[in-house]
């Protein structure tokens, strides 16, 4: 493992990412007319983050992780993402000024 990361810390980040993905796609799969104003803003932000490379995949950006979880996006988070990328659990797609974390 990288640095002094423990399995519990890595598992906590994996659970947080899974929660963020589930909450994000729960909003995206609802009919647009049934959403309230705050959820509708999130819906349009999610559509704005999508690119041709990320079409058809489940992904989150750092703003989604901050929105739906209590995780801090800091150096430790990025170190854990590096470990998950090495294990082929997460893939990064960079573009349009954002990094998308694709769930594999």
Automatic annotation (TrEMBL):
GO terms for cellular component: mitotic spindle; outer kinetochore; spindle microtubule. InterPro entries: SKA1, SKA1_MBD_sf. GO terms for biological process: cell division; chromosome segregation; mitotic cell cycle; regulation of microtubule polymerization or depolymerization. GO terms for molecular function: microtubule binding. It comes from the Eukaryota. Belongs to the SKA1 family. This is SKA complex subunit 1. It comes from Athene cunicularia.
């Amino acid at each position: 493992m990288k640095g002094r990361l423990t399995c519990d810390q890595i598992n906590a980040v994996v659970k947080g990412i899974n929660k963020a993905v589930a909450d994000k796609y729960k909003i995206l799969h609802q009919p647009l007319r049934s959403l309230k104003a705050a959820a509708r803003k999130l819906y349009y932000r999610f559509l704005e983050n999508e690119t041709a490379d990320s079409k058809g995949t489940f992904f989150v950006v750092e703003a989604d992780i901050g929105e739906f979880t209590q995780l801090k996006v800091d150096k430790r988070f990025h170190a854990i993402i590096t470990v998950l990328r090495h294990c082929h659990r997460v893939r990064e797609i960079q573009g349009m000024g954002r990094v998308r974390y694709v769930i594999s």
